Amino acid sequence: MPKLSLMFEGKTVKEVPLGNRPITIGRSPDNDIPVDNLAVSNHHARIYYEGARLVVEDLDSLNGTFVNDLRVERATLHDGDSIHVGKHYIKVDASHDAPVPYDMGRKAAAPAINETMVLDTKVRRDMLQQAAAMGERTQFASGRIKVPTIVVLSGSTASKEYVLTNKLTTIGKSSMATVRLTGWFKPQMAAQISQRDDGYYIGPGDKTPTVNGTPIPGPFRLNDGDLIEVCSVRMNFIFRD
Amino acid sequence: MRILGGGVTDVGRVRSNNEDCFRLVQPLNLFVLSDGMGGEAHGEIASALAVETVVKHCMEAETNPAAPLYGNPPADLSKHAKRLVSAVHLANRNIFKSAEEHPEQGGMGATLAAMWIDGNVLSVAHVGDSRAYLLRNGMLQQLTSDHSLVAEQVRRGIISANEAEQSDMQSVLLRALGTQPQVEVDSEEQELFQRDVLLLCSDGLTRMVTDPEIAGTLQAETDPQKASERLIAIANENGGADNISVIVVRLENESKGWFSWLRPGGRKHAGTNGSAGGH
């Protein structure tokens, strides 16, 4: 069972198991975790499950709630996080956290679903929320929403920057091409970039593009900062924040 | 460009009924495929209703371009793409209404993937996990993003594409036609080039046959009808766990001009006629 441990000067003062009920923290004795310190507000913060994600919420405390030394108003907690209120720390132990429905897909334990089913709106919202919570760290680490962009470094193109919004992006002279090459003897469709669930892949059209100097005869997954060259046009593939 | 199409649907090797449905409307170059779901025979009703509604709505618009558009298609789309999106919204409405009027059909729904070719412009619209692919220069590219839980998890970086393929949750859809009064329809337009090959298929194909196998088959078998049959055969050889439906469309050089026969593929398939009825 997941639990919270109140720590003071390196020692565990109190342990509280996490259940369905919110856990309150504050100076007032009616809290689940009372913290007797003047820097702590009467009702300082609370911790609760929202779906499968564990959330800490600051209750407008005077001196603030800190998760891993960052002041937060509301944050998703993960195993091993420490919450700082006043001079006390609260360690989060969510390692025994079992009931995470999103995880079913990764484990053989769940029964196989053979019949196609559609998640109704509520279930869907919950599952996606959990999924989002699990993916939150990577998202934050990489700076929120990333926009795949082609920046033209040299060569003749209709524009200098292109945001990749389509499933399939074509680079060529064609009037419908996303990255439009200008000038004589350019092919209608020189190369193509396709968006897959796990990233962006470049491949040949009438020409074989190079990525970081290596010719690409088949689909190749692009990384942030890759240098693409085709028909004497040099481009950077980047993820914009 | 000459447009040749072929299509096949097959019950597979495990199921007892076929809930897939497809239609090739060759005069319009309209191609529609749907995978139904729901107990009893209701999946079949849903997919048939989906295909029928889309085809009818698009055909009517050909004679009456002022026919009302459903679901507010994005303004930047072409006339054909707007009409296709409108047709998918109408299909959603019709299936939902049918399920409301016949309580025994409750919970039925359908996926839908449709392509409409106008000149060299392809319009694609879809809902669910039926897919559209483009094979160009040997590269097989998916033109649709599955509205499934596992695909969404891959897009959010929670699981890898490999994990998704192994997942038990592959049948969980986030969107389908007929389960809600409103649905969000994905649509996109692409420019087509000579020798492009297009594929519409239900998940019964993509779960049984790998991308390289699909690409190889489409390259090796240039007759669209035979390519469709071959893909179905491979899916069945690999287990045929679900109904399998495939539509293959090839774009050929128009065989005119003195030297057209010199171009690759210029003369090879002059006589093919891949038209096929649906279902």
Quaternary arrangement of the chains shown? heterodimer
Bin the strand percentage of chain A: 35-45%
Can you give the mean pLDDT of chain A?
A: 81
Rg of chain B is 18 Å
Taken from the alpha-carbon principal axes, the silhouette of chain B is globular
Rg for CA atoms of chain A: 26 Å
Alpha-beta classification of chain B: alpha+beta
Give the topology string of chain A: H per helix, E per strand.
EEEEEEEEEEEEHEEEEEEEEEEE
> What gross morphology of chain A would you assign?
elongated
Measured as a percent range, the helix fraction of chain B is 25-40%
How many β-strand runs of chain A? 23
Proportion of residues in extended strands of chain B: 25-35%
Please report the distance between the alpha carbons of the first and last residues of chain A: 38 Å
Strand order of the largest sheet of chain B: 1-11-10-6-7
Average of per-residue pLDDT values of chain B: 90
Most extensive protein-chain contact, per-chain counts? A-B, 47 and 48 residues
